[in-house]
Design goal:
mainly alpha, about 0% strand
C-alpha cells in the first residue's frame, strides 16, 4: 500500500514537473517572443509583460491568486491546492529558467509553442492537475451551471484574450497565429 502510494506520488511529480516545464517553455521560448498570446491567463500575462516588462511568471501567479481563492471556496480545497502547485511551477519556470527564445517566423513560433504547450498540458491533465486560468474560470462557472460544457467555457475565455491581443500588439497576425497555437495545443492534448 505504502509502495503504491509512493509510486503514485512519484508519477504525479514527474508528470507535473515535465508538463509545467514544457507548457512554460512553449510560452517563454516560442509564443511570447513572437507576440502570440495563447489565450487565458497565459495570454493576458504575455500581453501585460509586453506592455510593462513585469515578468510573465509573476503576472501568471498574481492573476491566478483571486481565481484560486474563489476555487478554494466554490470548487474545493483539493482542486485549489493541486492547481496552485502547477501554477507555482509554471511561474518559476517562466521567470527563473532562462532558455533560448525563438524570434523569427511567427508560424514556427505558433507551431512549436502550440505543440510544447499541448504536450505539457497533456502531462499535467493525465495526473488530474490543471494549469489554472481558464480552467479555474470554467470550473467556477460549471459549479453554478453544470449544463455548460467546460471546453466551450475555456474557448470563450481564450477567444476574448486572443482578440484583445490584436489591439495590444497592433496587428492581426498575432490573433491569427494565436488561433493556430490554440488549435495545435488542443489537438496535442486530445491526442
Amino acid at each position: 500500500m505504502l509502495k503504491s502510494k509512493g509510486k503514485e506520488l512519484a508519477l504525479d511529480a514527474l508528470h507535473l514537473l515535465l508538463g509545467t516545464f514544457l507548457y512554460a517553455g512553449g510560452i517563454y521560448c516560442f509564443t511570447a517572443p513572437n507576440e502570440i498570446a495563447p489565450g487565458g491567463v497565459s495570454g493576458i500575462s504575455t500581453m501585460i509583460n509586453a506592455l510593462t516588462g513585469i515578468p510573465m511568471g509573476v503576472l501568471t501567479m498574481a492573476i491566478n491568486i483571486p481565481l484560486l481563492l474563489l476555487a478554494f471556496f466554490v470548487v474545493g480545497k483539493r482542486f485549489a491546492v493541486k492547481t496552485l502547485i502547477s501554477i507555482g511551477l509554471i511561474s518559476v519556470f517562466m521567470d527563473l529558467v532562462h532558455l533560448p527564445v525563438y524570434r523569427g517566423d511567427m508560424i514556427l513560433g505558433a507551431i512549436f509553442g502550440g505543440v510544447c504547450m499541448g504536450a505539457g498540458l497533456a502531462l499535467v491533465f493525465m495526473r488530474d492537475f490543471t494549469t489554472g486560468g481558464s480552467d479555474i474560470v470554467a470550473k467556477l462557472v460549471q459549479s453554478k451551471r453544470p449544463d455548460m460544457p467546460m471546453g466551450q467555457l475555456i474557448l470563450l475565455v481564450d477567444v476574448c484574450v486572443v482578440l484583445m491581443s490584436g489591439f495590444v500588439y497592433g496587428r492581426i497576425e498575432s490573433v491569427l497565429y494565436a488561433g493556430i497555437t490554440i488549435f495545435l495545443y488542443t489537438r496535442v492534448v486530445d491526442f
